[in-house]
Each structure stands twice: as C-alpha cells, then as structure tokens.
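pinging the channel bc i need a second pair of eyes. not urgent but kinda urgent?? the chain im working w is below, pasted from the shared doc
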Amino acid sequence: MPMDNSASIMPQGPGERDDGAAAVFGITGGKVELVGLCFPAGTFTPARAATWLSGRGFKPLLFVPNSGGNRRR
C-alpha cells in the first residue's frame, strides 16, 4: 500500500508494541522509504485499520482490506 510520506514511523523500544501493525520499507541507493503497512486480520477490521492510519496522519493511496481467507480461528 503506497503511502504519502506526510507522517513518520517512530521506532519502538524493547517491550513496546503498536497493536501488531508491521511496516514495509524499500531501500534503494542508500535511501529508505516506507512503502506499506500490514495489519493482522485477526486483530484489525478494515475500519479499525483505517482509524489507526488516520490517527497517525497517514493517507493511504491504496487500501486493500483482507478478504477474510487468512483469518486464524
């Protein structure tokens, strides 16, 4: 999910979590760029993920909700 880069991801220290959201970075020519965020389907509904993004100043260019096929039971 490409993102505009109007917000930043803050590194977390040992023992800190942010509800399991994972950041995906691209590295090329020594430059690092956030290219996507992933949310565990068992924890985040599409609405909760959208709220999480909005609350941190992210404006996704593309939002792809989980189809439900990978949910753990």
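so Strands lie at 22-28, 31-38. and The two ends are 26 Å apart (CA to CA). — does that match what u expected or am i reading it wrong
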